[in-house]
Amino acid sequence: MEYRVIKENDLFFLTDEKGNIPKNHPYGLGLYTKDTRFLSKLHLHINGQEPVLLSSDAGENYVATILLTNPHMEKDGEILLWRESVEIERKRFIYEGVLYERINLKNYYPKPVQFELSIQVDVDFADMFIIRGFQTGKVGKRTGQTIGNRSLTFHYEGADQLKRATTITWDRQEKAVEEHGEIVFDFALNHAEEQTVTLIIQPQIGEEAQRNIASPIEALDRLKASYRQWESNITKITTDYEPLARLVSRGIGDLRVLLTDLGYGPFPVAGLPWFGVPFGRDSLIAALQMLPFQPEIAKGTLLTMAKYQGKHFDPWRDEQPGKVMHEMRFGELANTNQIPFTPYYGTIDATPLFLVLLTEYVKWTGDFELVRQLKNNIDDALMWIDQYGDRDGDLFVEYHQESAKGIANQGWKDSGDSIVHRNGEYAESPIALVEVQGYVYQAKMGLADIFEQLNEHEQAAKLRQQAEELRVKFEKQFWMEDVQFYAIALDGNKQQVGTITSNPGHVLFAEMLDSERMEKTIRTLLSPKMFSGYGIRTMGEGEAGYNPMSYHDGSVWPHDNSIILLGLSKLGKREEANIVMGGLIEAASHFEYDRLPELFCGYSKQFGKPVKYPVACSPQAWAAGTPLVFVQSLLGLFPNSLKKEIRLSPTLLEPMNVLKVENIAIGNGRLSVTVTRQNGETNVHIAQNTTGYEVKLV
């Protein structure tokens, strides 16, 4: 990463590797909350000069440590400061909506030294959509600065009538502070002496009361304690295959930092830096990936999505009653209705995925009370699928953009060139995506089983009938006999969009496909056309739209692979699943901090190391959740609270001999499993089972 980012709840801080925010940086660096930049410039100088970078550690998402030193400083033959005399350590973290930065300075010169440390700050209060170049519009104005006792506050009045401010305080007497945003400190250090200055930066929106800000030591202790609590409640894995262990540890840490709570329980936002907000499909899929490790996150995600479920017919926001949102924004442009993201509903898959997550969550937890609590939301989502989602009554759910500032392609491959015919022509809407039909089938079949348990027999029977009718028609209209594969979509004329893509792989998880065609689909997904050696591509090599450097037309997305993996594992395709996992694990070793990025280029492994995609988000929630799916797939773990059983079908990757998974939350208890391999034979030991469910080894 050429940037450094930390986040906690709704506040994130994006800087360059030195920890600075240069003006007009192409990445839009800054301190952000509610889609507004509350710090647009931050520059640290020593004697007016830029320090030299020594190291920049972003291994932890909640604390960043940056090490700098001074350049050589000489004037008229007189040495002002010998090179590398002063070590400058910048350590920053976020707690309860406040950014803390502790700057520690240590003298390594053999004699006393004196120098100035200056910090230049500024705030533009810019809306994120303007910063990213997506939108212009009417905005507010800066209303001045206030200098206080060891403090500087920048003020702004928005076009949405909200007053915003950024207050910067410090704990050391300054030499000077200027309204334009320069704070200067004098330092005099003896040999080996250390001194510090701590900045506390607080964004403020509206007339919110001035909060009691914890001391830096107390805030950091509380933050670390929250991480310890998170780790104590999560599933633990131990393995002799270190690359997998590192990937899972990184994924768990990334998902923790991406959690946000809008008042209905924690849920994962999509990713940093630009998508640290609620996203329908991203949040739902990440919560699905997390079920074996922390199922409570699924509950918070479902409750949040239910709260903002569509209630009206509003073409500006692509909203219809019962529809689950795509994305929600909170900035000035959203508040003044200059963009439709309040929330925006232009997604075709979030509504069935909401129901899929609910059914899978219930299978893991047996939490039927949540089903009762969300019954109206479930009914509304089903109504949307049948009425608004199926625009023409042909049983298929399709999308069409209504909003002038909305999204044209409304599946997970939402770039403008992602749904393309074999001849290179882009498909015209309304478009029925292959994976969405699988989500609808899976949702209705899963809900039918749940409703049977709740004695809702009539509704259960209706859902099963609808699902079967969809399955039969799906096989007839999506299967392409000439290439022995499923079309990515049907276009507005009900013609197959015949490009070979990864999308049909999602339908494996729904267990919807004809068995013979399912085998052929898996063979294609694992063929050299689709499998790069590092992962399954989004589009097959050689297709008219194929481009290994593209966003959706030949790149490799870890989360895309993870949903295919869930299907392969569920269907007992262990060898095929291991091939995919092995490729992704090898790819991850070439990325910073053993982190799977949002996506990477789809070049074949023969090309060499995996090629990074230049603007991939990192960390990204559903990429972080992918290694967690590896663990579920290796165990072949699929609980079913409705049957009071746990299906296990364990396997190990070739380099592994031990996989120990402890404290898996299932039902009202815990399951711990150890899988070992000795002399080529795999053994399974159930160390703990307090779930009350029967474990069935398959």
Automatic annotation (TrEMBL):
For this chain's UniProt record, which GO biological process terms are given?
carbohydrate metabolic process
Transmembrane feature ranges: none
Residue span, Putative glycogen debranching enzyme N-terminal domain: 6-199
- Which Pfam families does the record match to this protein? GDE_N_bis (PF14742), MGH1-like_GH (PF22422)
Q: Domain Mannosylglycerate hydrolase MGH1-like glycoside hydrolase: where?
A: 429-588
For this entry, the protein name equals Glycogen debranching enzyme
The record lists the organism as Anoxybacteroides voinovskiense
Instruction: Specify the taxonomic lineage.
Output: Bacteria, Bacillati, Bacillota, Bacilli, Bacillales
